[in-house]
Amino acid sequence: MVVIVVKLPKKVKIGFMRYNVEYPVVFEDDSTTAGLHFGVFGSIQVSKISSNGLHEVFHGIDLIFCCDALSENTVEKISKAWIQVIADNDLFIKDENKYPKEVKIGPFKYAVSIGHNDFKGTIGDVVSAHNSEQLCLKVATRNGKEFHPIYVKSNFMHVLFCAIIASYSIEAHADDVKNFNWKIFSNGVYQVFFENNLEELIKAHF
Fold first, then answer.
1. Mapping DSSP to helix (H, G, I), strand (E, B) and coil, where does residue 113 land?
2. Could you count the other beta carbons within 10 Å of the beta carbon of residue 93?
3. In this structure, are residues 6 and 205 in contact, taking their beta carbons and an 8 Å threshold?
4. How many domains does the chain have?
5. Which domain holds residue 192?
6. d(Cα 186, Cα 157) in Å, to the nearest integer?
7. Which member of 52, 110, 195, 200 lies 3.0 to 4.6 Å from 34 by CB, making a disulfide possible if both were Cys?
8. pTM exceeding 0.70
9. What is the spatial distance between Cα 114 and Cα 8, in angstroms, rounded to a whole number?
């Protein structure tokens, strides 16, 4: 079994919270515990830095942006999926004007289309077919002004997240699924990855 080692920074900013990351931590009450997220203390504790370290970060995103709605299993699937997507692609998260031409998600490859004139959907729509997968963004204007590039990039992150959810068959399993908003969650992912340089930290281990 290959262990994916991703070392988190000592401090991680999630929304308005600044978390201290403690590593390595020995959990005496449960030797199988890989990590814990304590939102009320602003603390992330990790016993072995792997996908579990990022797992606790996603618990923080869930707490700050979605009121701690997701199940443990869903958070675990999301964290592992994002490690794969970051490791296998250059997403240019820190560059608001640069996009990949193609994104590999699990076994699937999605072509990325930005400002596709023939695409009639709205910003954030995903076009997916059995033999041809695409991530499409229609960069529109309003009152003669172009949308801010960070706003457009956040919509790309949402489209990407929708494709991740579909490719990995991830369900919310939230207490109130009808009111759970993946768009808000994906905004949190974008903010956290952007401000904490997580793309670079993950790719450094591959």
1. strand
2. 19
3. yes
4. 1
5. 11-203
6. 7
7. 52
8. yes
9. 32
